[in-house]
């Protein structure tokens, strides 16, 4: 697990660098694909050794769009490169792409109906521990009977290019916070949500040690 003091120092340093270099980086394009709005997007390639996504530095490349009562992030750099009906695919093979996949996939696998769920899940998810395709609807840790929460931030845990692990901060409609443990697996050239039996979101007293998404709702 990444020590918290290290995470905070990397966040601060990266945020400062971002203020200086983000505009220049935004012009870089390669390997074009198309996003839901039919704009050209260029997913960043893997960067060995870069294992900590920083919310503040990512924000200039993110657009949050409404979906079933919540908001989901889209990026020309990190994906999703394609959205078909309620399925989002094509995420960058890097920590940033993984954390966006965590949010997109868990919201969609919670919010879509039973009739469409299995086809969507076979595209966006695998089942632990052997990462096999889903054969029946599984829980995501988010209550499907309640309004979808807002994704307020994340706490990074680990990344090695094949697996990404983080805790997602969820803000419920009454303002309370919960923490959802999320794992992504790199499978068939994309990030897939790893579904586990009986996942739960734990009460979260605040966003200490989490990276809040700028511009998202706050308790």
Automatic annotation (TrEMBL):
Pfam families: DUF8175. Residues 41-210 form the DUF8175 domain. Residues 1-26 form the signal peptide. This is DUF8175 domain-containing protein. Residues 200-219 are annotated as: Disordered. Keywords: Signal. It comes from Nocardia nova SH22a. It comes from the Bacteria. InterPro entries: DUF8175 (IPR058488).
């Amino acid at each position: 697990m990444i020590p918290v003091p290290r995470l905070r120092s990397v966040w601060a340093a990266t945020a400062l660098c971002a203020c200086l270099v983000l505009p220049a980086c935004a012009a870089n394009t390669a390997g074009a694909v198309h996003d839901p709005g039919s704009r050209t997007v260029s997913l960043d390639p893997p960067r060995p050794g870069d294992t900590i996504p920083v919310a503040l530095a990512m924000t200039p490349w993110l657009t949050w769009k409404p979906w079933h009562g919540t908001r989901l992030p889209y990026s020309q750099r990190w994906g999703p490169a394609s959205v078909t009906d309620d399925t989002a695919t094509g995420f960058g093979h890097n920590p940033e792409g993984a954390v966006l996949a965590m949010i997109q996939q868990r919201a969609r696998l919670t919010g879509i109906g039973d009739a469409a769920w299995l086809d969507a899940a076979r595209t966006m998810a695998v089942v632990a521990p052997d990462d096999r395709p889903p054969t029946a609807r599984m829980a995501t840790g988010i209550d499907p009977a309640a309004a979808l929460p807002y994704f307020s931030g994340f706490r990074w845990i680990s990344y090695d290019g094949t697996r990404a692990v983080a805790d997602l901060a969820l803000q419920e409609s009454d303002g309370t916070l919960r923490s959802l443990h999320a794992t992504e697996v790199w499978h068939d050239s994309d990030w897939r949500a790893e579904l586990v039996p009986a996942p739960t979101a734990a009460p979260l007293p605040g966003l200490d040690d989490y990276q809040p998404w700028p511009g998202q709702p706050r308790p």
